[in-house]
Design brief:
Length: 173
């Protein structure tokens, strides 16, 4: 469930991207995996998207030394979606010289992701005010409110301490 909540909030935070930016979501379960803010190119012919950074939904597996003819000798972490377990691609941290363009990047298999262009389906989008409010989202908001409240109290306390230090003591008349 936490993943589903993260999804909702991640997407809204991704709106900070430039207009027309693309969000890559898992083709299987739709959680956001990355966006074009961290885009580093596309390998033509290999249908691989190269990303400098990915979301928390992309998890690295244990190191594998490749035996594939294409990238023999490379070492990489296999990548998978933490929400549904689908394989997503590879993160290379050691490659032969002809593959250095893949090095230290998330090589996301473009068949494992769907591209969501920001603002693309604006007409068919359901405004947040009309979205169904589930018990889970309510609980999530309640928790968030509690957290914010605690934070606010801490800030108020700090503020009053600061005030006491900065402002001259009130004169007794
Ligand atoms: Zn997934």
């Amino acid at each position: 469930m936490a993943a589903a909540h993260g999804f909702t909030f991640k997407l809204s935070s991704l709106y900070r991207t430039v207009d027309g930016g693309v969000v890559y979501v898992c083709a299987n379960c739709q959680v956001p995996l990355g966006d074009t803010n961290d885009w580093n190119g596309k390998l033509q012919g290999e249908s691989v998207v190269l990303l400098k950074a990915v979301s928390e939904f992309v998890k690295c597996g244990r190191v594998i030394r490749s035996r594939d003819p294409d990238d023999a000798g490379s070492k990489y972490h296999p990548l998978h979606c933490s929400n549904c377990g689908s394989p997503l691609g590879r993160f290379y941290f050691s490659t032969p010289p002809h593959l250095t363009n893949k090095l230290n990047l998330y090589n996301i298999d473009s068949t494992a992701v769907k591209e969501y262009t920001l603002g693309e389906d604006l007409d068919s989008m359901i405004p947040a005010s009309e979205a169904p409010l589930t018990l889970e989202t309510c609980q999530y908001f309640e928790e968030e409110f509690k957290k914010q409240h605690v934070l606010l109290e801490m800030l108020q306390e700090k503020m009053s301490k600061l005030e006491n230090r900065v402002l001259p003591p009130e004169q007794d008349s």
